[in-house]
């Protein structure tokens, strides 16, 4: 592949800080109180991405499946921490469950895509595997966070109906079924919506990146189609698994609702 | 005995509610009326007895079989709790009445009998035309009678009724007690009834009382 990328020099990169000055100007003019976060965010963007750039260069050279698997697993860990940390309805949610759901959905879909669809030589080429797995993960992370939050929200607002079903001898699954369905649906809707409007409203980041990097747009589009479909699948699997693991936690061992579902949100 | 319980104790949060653990029981065809001031834990007693929430001690028996021998769902279907505030599902009145039979335990015992449902609704002064109405549009009194019909249709062994007539007017109260008395006697069932007023005098048949004493004193 010939490289048509226009390189960005250090000076040019420094100019991009001008953009931060504009954002900072708006923030201080309106007293948004975001200046500190903005500066810190900018520094982190520079540092994190620079480090990742070096790390990826190193990883691409080493080309070891074990190292790649380790990296993907660490990525899953970070994503699951974020997913369980940002669900207001679910205080203290065990991270292990979101970790398991993300790990499984990412590996299942990621391996299908890299081994069967893109099939680079060797199939574990980090240049393909890491971005692909990263994209899957970023999207399923949001999906499972939404469905987890929705599951608990639904259970709280429908606790009287869930209990009514329990009084008719319903098992936890029978009583929570409609909340489970709503939760999986909620997690999948953003992805399904993006399948509808892709290319019309938004040019996805990956495709944009490839085009900026000099790739033929028609080639970039083919990649993007694969990426969109794999994301939808991964989100569906991740939401289903996580909600499937989690709904049982709304109930105690005897199959009745846990007290926290019936109490106000803390 | 149809239903009995020994040394039942429970707490609300970390607060223990009862002065001393509770025991009681009833034979087929009987009603046990639970009396006590607001906050004395009457509703909680019913919830604990139907295993909707865990108590901190005690044991209950259905026909002399300990609740430890019976699974939660099975127990709850037989020792059925009817909440004070009717919990209706999305859908029509008819769909609400049929919904319990979606649970495998209830659906496995009997099928939804719409003729019987209409008969009970009629006895409880619920309009026949209500059948296809959206259940969410019912008034408080209609909703609580509908929930009562729904509970009778699944034929539990013991009904735990939490102030079932609170939302009812005089005429439907009368009808409620007629239907309840008949159901208990004809089918050899039993009921625990939490009540604030002395309406329970309208029950025909044998009534016993359980008076709850609050830890904070007073009856």
Calculate the terminal CA-CA distance of chain A, rounded to whole Å: 55 Å
Number of helices of chain B: 7
Strand content of chain B: 15-25%
Tell me about the largest β-sheet of chain B.
5 strands, parallel
Rounded to the nearest angstrom, the radius of gyration of chain A is 22 Å
Number of helices of chain A: 11
How large is the share of residues in beta strands of chain A? under 5%
Summarize it.
The complex is a heterodimer of chains A (266) and B (219). Chain A is built from eleven helices and no strands.
Describe this structure in words.
- The complex is a heterodimer of chains A (266) and B (219).
- The mean pLDDT of chain A is 88.
- Chain A contains eleven helices and no strands.
- The radius of gyration of chain A is 22 Å and the shape is globular.
- Chain A is 76% helix and 0% strand.
- Chain A has 266 residues and is mainly alpha-helical.
- In chain A, α9 runs antiparallel to α10.
- Chain B is α/β, with parallel strands linked by helices.
- In chain B, β9 (158-162), α7 and β10 form a beta-alpha-beta unit.
- In chain B, α5 crosses α6 (140-153).
- The radius of gyration of chain B is 17 Å and the shape is globular.
- The model of chain B has no long low-confidence stretch (mean pLDDT 92).
């Amino acid at each position: 592949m010939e490289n048509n990328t226009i390189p960005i020099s250090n000076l040019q990169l420094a100019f991009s800080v001008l953009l931060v000055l504009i954002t900072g100007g708006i923030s201080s003019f309106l007293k948004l109180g975001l200046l500190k976060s903005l500066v810190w965010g900018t520094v982190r963007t520079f540092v994190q991405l620079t480090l990742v750039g070096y790390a990826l260069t190193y990883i691409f050279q080493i080309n070891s499946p074990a190292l790649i698997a380790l990296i993907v697993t660490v990525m899953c860990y970070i994503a699951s921490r974020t997913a369980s940390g940002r669900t207001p309805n679910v205080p203290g949610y065990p991270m292990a469950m979101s970790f398991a759901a993300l790990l499984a959905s990412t590996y299942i879909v990621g391996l299908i895509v890299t081994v069967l669809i893109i099939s680079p030589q060797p199939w574990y080429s980090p240049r393909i595997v890491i971005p692909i797995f990263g994209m899957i993960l970023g999207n399923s992370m949001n999906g499972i966070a939404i469905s987890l939050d929705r599951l608990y929200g639904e259970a709280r607002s429908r606790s009287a109906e869930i209990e009514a079903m329990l009084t008719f001898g319903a098992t936890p699954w029978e009583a929570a079924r409609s909340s489970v369905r709503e939760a999986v649906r909620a997690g999948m809707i953003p992805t399904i919506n993006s399948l509808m409007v892709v290319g019309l409203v938004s040019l996805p980041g990956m495709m944009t990146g490839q085009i900026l990097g000099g790739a033929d747009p028609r080639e970039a589009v083919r990649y993007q189609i694969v990426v969109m479909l794999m994301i939808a699948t991964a989100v569906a699997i991740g939401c289903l698994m996580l909600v499937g693991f989690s709904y049982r936690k709304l109930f105690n061992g005897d199959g009745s609702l846990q007290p926290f579902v019936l109490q106000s949100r803390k | 005995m149809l239903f009995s319980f020994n040394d039942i104790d429970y707490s609300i949060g970390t607060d223990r509610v009862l002065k001393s653990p509770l025991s009681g029981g009833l034979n087929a065809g009987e009603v046990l009326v639970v009396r006590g001031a607001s906050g004395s834990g009457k509703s909680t007693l019913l919830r604990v007895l139907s295993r909707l929430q865990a108590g901190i001690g005690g044991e209950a028996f259905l026909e002399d079989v300990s609740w430890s021998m019976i699974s939660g769902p099975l127990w709850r279907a037989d020792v059925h709790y009817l909440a004070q505030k009717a919990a209706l599902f999305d859908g029509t009145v008819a769909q609400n009445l049929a919904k319990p039979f979606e649970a495998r335990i209830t659906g496995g015992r009997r099928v939804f009998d719409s003729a019987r449902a209409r008969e009970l609704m009629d006895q409880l002064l619920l309009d026949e035309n209500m059948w296809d109405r959206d259940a969410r549009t019912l008034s408080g009194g209609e909703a609580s009678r509908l929930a009562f019909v729904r509970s009778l249709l699944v034929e539990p062994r013991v009904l735990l009724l939490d102030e079932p007539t609170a939302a009812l007017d005089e005429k439907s109260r009368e009808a409620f007690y007629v239907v309840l008395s008949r159901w208990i006697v004809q089918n050899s069932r039993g009921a625990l009834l939490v009540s604030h007023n002395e309406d329970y005098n309208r029950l025909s048949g044998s009534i016993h009382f359980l008076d709850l004493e609050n830890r904070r004193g007073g009856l």
